[in-house]
Amino acid sequence: MFRIMRIEVSGIKGIKDKISFDFENQTISKRIFDKPAIKAIYGTNGSGKTAILTAIDIYINLCLDSFYLLKIDNSASLKKLINKQTNFFEIKVYFITDDAVAYTHRISINARADKPYIEEEEIDRIVGKTINGENEVLLRIKNAECISYRDSETELYKKTDDIVKEAIAKVSEYRSVITLIGDGIFRSKIIKIFNPEGRNKPLDNKTTIAAIFNTRILSLSTYVYLGASDKHKEVTVGSFLEYADALKSKISEPDKVYMSQTEIVVPVGRIDELKEHIQSVYKFIRLFKPTLKGIELIKTQEGEKYRCRMVMVYPEYSVDYEYESAGIKNLIYMYDCLENSSRGGISFIDEMDVNINEIYLERLCSYFMKYGKGQLCITIHNTAPMKILKGGKHSLDFINCSQEAISWIKNGSKSPSNDYKDGMIPGIPFNVNDFDFIEVFGES
Amino acid sequence: MLLIFVVETTESNKSDEMYIKKYIRTMFPQLIDSPGSVVKWVYMNGKGNYKKNSTLHKIEDYSKRYLRFYENVNDIHVIYCVDLDDTCQALDADNNKRLNREIKAFCDERSYKFVWFNRTIEEVFLGKKILRQKDKSKEAQKYIRKEILNIEYGSEAYNANDYMEGQTRRTNLGTILAKL
Predict the structure, then answer these.
(1) Given Cys at both, which of A188, A338, A374, B174 links B159, Cβ 3.0 to 4.6 Å?
(2) Where exactly does CATH 3.30.70 map onto chain A?
(3) Distances in Å between the alpha carbon of A185 and those of A177, A252, A341?
(4) Who among B14, B18, B69 is closest to A426 (CB)?
(5) What is the pLDDT of residues A226-261, one digit of tens each?
(6) What is the CA radius of gyration of chain A?
(7) What are the structural domain ranges in chain B?
């Protein structure tokens, strides 16, 4: 399991300068995993909440998709998403493994050229006791040239160093080094060293190759749900099987499962797992809509894949998923993220309160505060969950009009909701009254 | 900066708030639009309640909560906004003048700003007296809908200094806001 400890982002949409979010206490310790982690980010419309999640979505895509920057659609959309003033996007993710080894991974994209490319990529291991402590550079690539690489000390790992260096030399500025793990030839070379007789030997987390693997698994275990309106790509990966595969074997790559607004595409051999998953989705939706009697899967085989449609079954009628209410569809879409967080993964959900009744929303947040095993980060407008979230450290953040992150600091019975609504959170004054709309809508 | 406007109206009426806010938005927009500027309103429900516990408690509550995040006490400005009137409810002219002086002295003592309207806020902004309470909000709503106002903003009428001797249709609102 992994936990993200901090994320720093700059140069995305309206966010020009660096904005930083802490998700955990700064001390590097296994104890981080003892408690659930939920963070809600509040802010006015256009303050940059979605921009942060978009940045994380780009980061995950860079780490998982070898061709992400080469695809014309992605390239064009990045040109639009990256801040127009800087034309330079950077994200740095601080994360920790359950062995209490902490890394940072930084990627910067230069969008000044016609086609955005990776200008720099760096993986460090944090050797100090806190995330602000000393770092050891494991790998640094600038303009596709490896300018720093930390060699391993043991013979076994030295063999991997040669393979990694050779592979890095062939990686262009349009591809993150993390995507190497998705390369079958690269992976089998590494497996031959570590698993010559099929043994499952754990990697030494202090090595460069382990850092690359761990960053890849972090990416696989991190889901981002931007909501239908903010999709900047055609297909959404509803990859509930991916992370399970990744956990089973740290060096095997999973079969992909795609879920779009209309269908789920699954390899033939995994249809039973999908059915099991749909049954869990049904249990979840039933909590919101008790009249739902089931979710049927209508499947059509196409070679090695099934194309499946979901049909929602009610006592008197059935509705194709596509024509289900926006609220239920949104919940189904979010389910993968919520499930991922509940079992130990990391999920980011944009505007989680859209289409969710406030009472359900509060109870869902309360579940993650009390029982969640992973990390859940949501952006939200509804203030009702604040009274639950105010109890946690790093559970409540605000983005203000100057695009600064403000963390709520617990203070006795003080109500974040009142302070927020009364404009006391720095940079979010809410100097708007009901009568201000008279000037807009009132008769002249 | 925290601006606490203490106004005479009730929370449901808000007519004073409408005039003052329209004026600020036109003449000193940075005071409303700047992300670092928090504008709060405290309703006295009559100027006679200027030092009532509920009024003072609200001022204190906003100030304390603001200081939890901002720390600089000099950034807090409490601005009492009061109609000078001829007479006030049960008060005759002399007692009304005495009450005005008391409020002014109270503000001076606490370093609060004292904004006066001669004789009433409606006379300053509308040029006429509004007698019935229920008409006050309606008239204020009509006023804030107007793009062009019947009195030129920023004129001398809004920048008077001597509150007791000032002519009618005058206020020191502009003078006070310009110093913030």
Answers:
(1) B174
(2) 231-343
(3) 15, 12, 32
(4) B69
(5) 875 444 333 333 333 444 444 443 334 445 555 665
(6) 23
(7) 2-178
